[in-house]
Amino acid sequence: MSDPMQTERRQVLRFLAAAGVTAGITGLSSPTRAASCEQDGTPLQFTPKTAPDPWPLDNELIKYPKCPYCGMDRKQYHYSRHLVHYQDDLADATCSLHCAALSLALNLDRGPKAIYAADFGAAIEPKPLVEADTATYLIGSKLPGVMTKQSKVAFAVSTAAETAKAEQGGELGDFDAALQAAYQSMASDTAMIRKKRMEKKARAADRAGHAQ
Question: Is residue 32 domain-resident?
């Protein structure tokens, strides 16, 4: 990605963070969160807790099986997964654009070397990762969203995205348009996720009570 693009994206992220768009993003981690470290309580707390990886795409589903922000299985959600590769070679592999947006917001001073998205239009599984900046996103279609009510899926081939739009509705855009949509829906998506997890815990507690 070019330096001007990174600079512009960083400015957008700073603006969105200052405007409170990313408020409420903490507390979404699963019970199996990363272990604490000496940097906890500082901005560096959110540094990806993995070793630098110059080749993050090699066996990436084996190396990064779980999303660090929500704990979801990236192989199960292979069709929506993203991976942010930062300039210091730290890799943040997520289940979705929603969680990739969290990574980018929490690592404002760590420039991305590349951002990858699953090619929803690929016929094989797991869907291969492609550079997000070259992909065409279908935003707000009838396709189910992952960690969001508003789906945002990437296509390596623009004609495949156009075909999906004709069948599923939505609007086409580039990665930055999809990222902006992710931040704009962050508050409502966070509330939705919290509600679902509270309901899940309540059902589990109810089943445990009946089992006694």
Answer: no
Range of the domain at 179: 3-17+46-211
What pLDDT, in 10s, does the model give residues 25-77? 443 333 334 445 555 445 566 778 889 999 999 999 999 999 999 999 999 99
- In sequence order, what are the beta bridge partners of 130? 117
Question: Model's pTM, two decimal places?
Answer: 0.78
Token pair belonging to 73 = 């299985």
Question: Which 3 state secondary structure label does DSSP give 98?
Answer: helix
Pairing of strands 129-131, 112-118: antiparallel
Q: Which amino acid is at 133?
A: D
Q: Has residue 165 been placed in a domain?
A: yes
Residues 6+ apart with CB under 8 A from 50: 64, 90, 91, 92
The packing angle between helices 175-184 and 3-18, to 10°, is 10
Gap between the Cα atoms of 48 and 70, Å rounded: 14
Note whether residue 39 is domain-resident. no
* 196's tokens: 């679902």
State the total domains in the chain: 1
Would residue 33 count as lying in a domain?
A: no
